[in-house]
Amino acid sequence: MTSPNYCSRKGHNVQFIVVHWWGNPAHHRDGDPSGVIKHLSTPAGEKSVSAHAVVWPGGVTELIDPRYAAWHAKSVNRFTIGIECWPWDERSPKDLVNATLENLAQQIAHYYQLYPHLADVRLHAHSEHVATECPGKHYRARLNSIRARALEIYQGKPAKQPQRKEIPKMIIFRTPEGVCTIFLNGETKQNPSQALLNALINAGVPVVEVSHDDLAWLEPSKNWQFMASRIKDLKDMETGYPGINPTLKATSLTQQIATSLGISQRTN
Ligand SMILES: [Zn+2]
Questions:
Q1: Ligand 1 (single-atom ion) residues, CB below 5 Å
Q2: Are both 30 and 136 inside the same structural domain?
Q3: Residue 114 alpha carbon to ligand 1 centre in Å
C-alpha cells in the first residue's frame, strides 16, 4: 500500500462505494493527480485523509488495500470504499472527462470482483454523508450511468480503451508581469484578452510560467517579434498533454525546452 493513512475495518464488511472529487475543477484542468496522491499519502495527525484509489484521465492509482479502511468519509469509513476522482465540469476537455469516467468504471468493476455483493448496491456521493460539495453535481448526476458501465465491465463486456483526441498544439507563455504570448497552430497571438485567456485555460491549454532568466533567452532584447518567432520554434515540442510534464515547469525550463527541440546550446 502506498498510503499509510488507513486502519482496521474492525470486522465490518464493505457495504458500498463512495465517490469523491479532489477539488475545484477550474484549478485542475490538466488532470494531473500527483498533488492529490501526495496529499492522501501523507500523515497529518488527526487531519490525515486518504482514499482507496485515485482516478484521473490517465489511469488509476490504488493507495490502500480495500481490506482496510481509508479515511475519506468520517462515520462511514469502516464499511466503505472511497475513490477520489479528477474534478471536472462542463468546461473541462471532453476526452479527458470520458477517459476518467471509463477508468472509474473499470476500478469499480475491479471492486465488484473482490466484493460481488457491491454489484447490487448503488454508488454513493460523499455529499450524502457529510455536508460537502464533493463530488460535484456532474458526478452526482452520473452515478447511475457510471455504475451501469461498471456492471458491463464486471459482466465481461470488454473495457473500452480510453480514446485520446488530438489536442491542438497550443501553449500559453506567462511572464512574471502577466501573459505575453499564445502559440496556436503555427500562429502567435500577443497580449490576449482576459476572456480569451480564461477560455483557453479552461479548455486545458497548458500554461508555461516563464521566469526572468527564461526571458533572457527567449527575449534577450525585449523584442516581442523575436520572442514570437522563438515560440514558433516550439511547435514540435512534445508536451505530454494533459499538462506539461511537471519537470518542464521546474527551474530548468529553458534547458528542458532546448532538449525537447534538440538544441544543444543557446544560439543567441
Ligand atoms: Zn469527498
A1: 20, 126, 134
A2: yes
A3: 23
